[in-house]
Design a protein that fits this description.
heterodimer, A: alpha+beta, Herpes Virus-1, 2 domains, 3-stranded antiparallel beta sheet, 4 helices, 5 strands, elongated, B: alpha+beta, 4-stranded antiparallel beta sheet, 4 strands, globular, transmembrane (chain A)
Amino acid sequence: MASTSESEGQKEGDDPEDANKSNPSQDGTFECNICLDTAHDAVVSMCGHLFCWPCLHQWLETRPNRQTCPVCKAGISKEKVVPLYGRGNAKQEDPRTKVPPRPQGQRTEPENNGPFQSFNWGGDGGFQMSFGIGAFPFGLFASTVNLGGPRLPGAQPGTPQFEEEQFLSKLFLWVAILFIFWLLVA
Amino acid sequence: MASQNRDPAMPDVRAKPATTISNLNSKESHSVTKRLQQELMALMMCGDKGISAFPDGDNLFKWVGTIHGAQSTVYEGLTYKLSLEFPCAYPYQAPVVKFQTPCFHPNVDQSGNICLDILKEKWAASYDVRSILLSIQSLLGEPNNESPLNVQAADMWIDQTAYRKILHEKYETEVKSRN
């Protein structure tokens, strides 16, 4: 068993069907270090290693606690990779803006300090409003204005956030009043 | 207006759109297959001395590897077969590598399990079959005797002559008797 010559076995073995799709570049200079194929949506880490962005993203997702370069184990992060743009590609968008394929759906980050947090103002200010044109039998036009709704613990009075919430609350109250006025006139 | 305050039908503007969990299983498995085919090609092309591997039958996710003991180590002249099983999450997860041939070594247990950091917590997606087999080949000559799976082998390692004798005796009885 142990003495069988495996090198012979390899040469005689059936080649996989895709084997004829051999890589054009044998030196592997521009191949992703993870999928071993020519890098697409290429990004390069600060330590200089080339990856497909989907491949690297999945690697970083797999190891949320240990963000290291798969090649040299240097510390890396999603923010500190450089996208590579070749010539002739019409849409030179950052590959990182694409949502890469993920096996377990989307993982929500524990601390979300993103720019979209301000979307919460509607609820925190205790003011919610919705306009709609519905097919519901009770109304062709629907307009809802919600004042002093269930308040979540919002910003403390005096803080800039509180001021902002107050301002937005007033602004949208006026928008609602104007809209209702417009509905009545029209 | 106040009566509308608690309209249960009112859409919640804060609600985030539900994240769609796309089913990419077939695509994933395709990319794993592709990578394994790339590795097979590379292994056959490079022709490393002392290591080889080939898929076990039609299943590309299960390979049989062979390691020849490196020169000027006590394992010189011995050949070991290993099984490599690739998970669906390969290469983001390490393959399960086991000795099929009984191996007397400080870091290999009776069932052929290998204690090697790169197969566990130090795994990286850039490792491939070739680097795994080369690592195991060098592990044969340079065991980590600090955390042995086979304590007897670890204790004997100091005396290389005696170790070599026992090793080859065991190999003769356990391996040759199988054929």
